Amino acid sequence: MMSKIAVIPGDGIGKEVAPEGAKLLEQLSSARGLGLELEFFDYGADRYLKDGTTLPPEQLEAFRRDYRAILFGAVGDPRVPDSRHAREILLALRFQLDLYVNLRPVRLLADRFSPLVGKGRKEIDGVFFRENTEGVYVDVGGNFKQGTADEIAITEDVNSRKGVERICRAALDWARKHGEKTVWMSDKSNAMRHAGGLWQRVWKELARDYPDLELRHMYVDVLAMQMVLRPELFRVVVTNNLFGDILTDLGAGISGGLGFSASANLNPGKIGLFEPVHGSAPDIVGTGKANPIATFLTCALLLEHLGHDAEARIVEKAVDLAVAENVLTPDVGGSRTTSEVSEFVRAQVARLAAA
């Protein structure tokens, strides 16, 4: 069965790393008979500045109907200072495709990248589930008496029972599938009693459906502290949109930086959006310094989403070999270029896939 994959390189270094990821997927598809069919799309700042196009509704519907995954590079361009095109593209994909799960691994690839004394790869190895379509980022609110000394700004925190339950179930189902026994839910219900109270009620009710798992809770401020002190506690964490945004960036900080950070935006059983977290980095475009590792790890998430778990492990092993031999870009202590790192990883993938 053919699986159609849309590739949107976007802006900046996205146009450098996404094609490298696409080559890796095509290579694995050919070697292992995966039936992946990749198609490139030019949505990004260049297209927006040319004809005003961000992401046409008919294209969005085609993605929903015909494609199983989207490999995304990055968006953001100094020629569009308000980043309108970036918001319209990403928000359309996230909300119109109802990609309510933002899955972010927090995994240290080598002990030498850890900023935490005494904490290495064994301790820093978790997955965060961030609710992706609700919370404070839905932009409900407004300003009153704007521009005056009495101005009031309000941003609402929107949480639905359906939204809370489905993200919690996604984390619990993932834990069960991957043999994890403990899942943490993090909120701030001691101060945000209405939204937090809903999360608390749903979490307690779900315990009945997952008797084989230990459902635990920790306030988000305490969890942030404990991520630095005892990261080994947190193998699976689920939280809301805002807290997830903050905690996963902290997670990137303790696991080697954004150059290693992959993400998946999912609606389980439907199309998924897969993107490295690092952004478009316009200051290093064309220098050969863009780190492709996050894109390759993102490709591993994409493969797992499609049910190709063995091939996902091959990609992860190839990345491990690049890290072990320090075939890396300068941002993480290496001296290689984007293309050199990419060629090395793909060579390892070819060898492992043939074994």
TrEMBL record:
Positions of transmembrane segments: none
Matches recorded under Gene3D superfamilies: Isopropylmalate Dehydrogenase
Required cofactor names: Mn(2+); Mg(2+)
Keyword tags: Manganese, Metal-binding, NAD, Oxidoreductase
One MF term in the entry's GO annotations: magnesium ion binding
Boundaries of every Isopropylmalate dehydrogenase-like domain copy: 4-345
Official protein name in the record: 3-isopropylmalate dehydrogenase
